[in-house]
Amino acid sequence: MTGTSLRLGRLFRRDSGRSFMVAYDRTMMEGPAPYGVDPAETLGRIVAVAPEAVLIGPGLLKQCGHLFGFSGGPRIVARIDYPMVAEFRQQGVELYRTVVDPAHAAAQGADAAVMCLIDGFEDPHTYAANVAAVAEMARRCHDVGLPLIVEAVLWGVRNTDQTDAGRLAAISRIAVELGADAIKTQYPGSAAGMRRIVECCPVPVLVLGGAARDGTAVEAATTGAVAGGARGVIYGRNVWQRDDIGAMAETLRRLVRTA
Predict the structure, then answer these.
(1) What pTM does this model have?
(2) 22 CB contacts (<8 Å, ≥6 apart)?
């Protein structure tokens, strides 16, 4: 067993093979979002609900990594890229950059890395650069034993439907072919659509949460994703952008961790 596969396995529970992860990386693009102004306080609340892993940016890994430093604590997934797409376009232009070398992330204490592969860029050269970056970072991650989770999404301006199951399946499979060890993608709106994505990806598939929604909507999406074969969730604002994250975390643990 390689270090990469060993660390990937540790992101998932032994009893169910699933994972409840929390993403706190949006503030890397947005800045101090509501409920996320004090990163140490927010991360403390996240760690307290005991997810399998937490996704954070490199600066917070450096500043707040001590919050994870205990036996049984959540694993750390580090974002190593900076996708300037959707509402984060620069002067209306889509851009994409990698910003962290995997060796540096590993030295800081990361257990895995995450980066995007985005379908639908207006400029095909940006997509080509994104493809090359995923392939290169997969190699560098594996050189230091880090699993790479690729966020395969339809966030480019040429896509009007970010939940199209066929296109999500295609971009997810491309990410796997480029070297992804796991996929993070959009829930396509139905268990059948989720199954379509999962069946073409020979690696674990997890779903992202998107904008904060009411508990009923989050529970319905999670139930559908798991029924469609998703191995878990990497939810951000739907966990930490609320007054009581404990209740939502308990719901997600029940839905995701059940064997």
Answers:
(1) 0.97
(2) 46, 49, 51, 53, 54, 55, 74, 234, 235, 236, 239, 240
